[in-house]
Amino acid sequence: MMKRLFAVAVVLLLPLAAAAQTRVQAEDASCLPIKDNGLLLAQVSGEPGGSMVRLYFRRLHEEVEDFYYVDMTPTGNGRYWAVPPKAADEILDVKKLERQLAEERADQEAVLAELGDEADDYPEAAWWVVKERTDHRDPNDDLNSEIIEERAQAGKQMRRDWMLAMTLSQLETWLEQLENEPTEYFASVYDASGREIARSPMQVVEVTEDCDVRLDARQRGQANNLVVGETAPWEIGRNVFHWLCDGIVTRRDYQGILRSDEICRACLVAWLDEAVVAASSGLIGITGIIIDREPFPPDERPVSEQEPGDATVTPGS
Questions:
Q1: Is residue 117 part of a domain?
Q2: Which of 9, 23, 82, 93 is a Cys-bridge partner for 55, taking CB atoms 3.0 to 4.6 Å apart?
């Protein structure tokens, strides 16, 4: 009887042991380009058979914190690559901590006590650190609470390891020289049953005009046929937040259901309809199609372009 119980215990522990040995690290990237595809890499060790790796990504934004993802492609020896969509040209809003307002909440006051006088010396960095280390996510109490409630619930649980590793001085210097909203990313490994068994620390990479990324034929083919996964209900039926439509053809919602990208496809079809009408009238000749940045319907504008009172979509709608 004891031998049988021991054998059962060993069988039950085997999956846990395999999972415990799996490691993944999203590699540092030098940059991602504005309005073009970049390339992000990961290294996995101890991956079990039938596993898959996903790259999660988002732009650094003061209100919207939920992620998207794309599946990563293996190249052997635990190496993986992924091509995220083309980053839109979006400037990161400058936010500076107003200490008196921040001290009105106990959790923020505790963080400020740790930061000391440096919170006053580096107010932009202090704003982000206080936001990251408290649940409220709005240090000065001047952000759109409805947007935060809808669009940051899943993403705010992902710790910004890259930020917490910096001193306030380092973070302030980095923030001040940014050209554009940077991209945050991490990689996760899933076993054959779809259970996450490993996750890398979060990384950050700058998005710049002069970033030169060369994709090979396979990577360029994937860039033109992207399947973008969603992690929250509000992302359904909306543009991929602060990323361009070009190349996105399929979406996978937060429940894993695949569908055609109705937003990007609608913009492309509307553009083609207008072009065909103009061509048939002899007004223009069509020799090629380049899609750069799509127009946004009034209710699909990026959050940074909305007024504070703008309506938001109810989750699940």
A1: yes
A2: 82
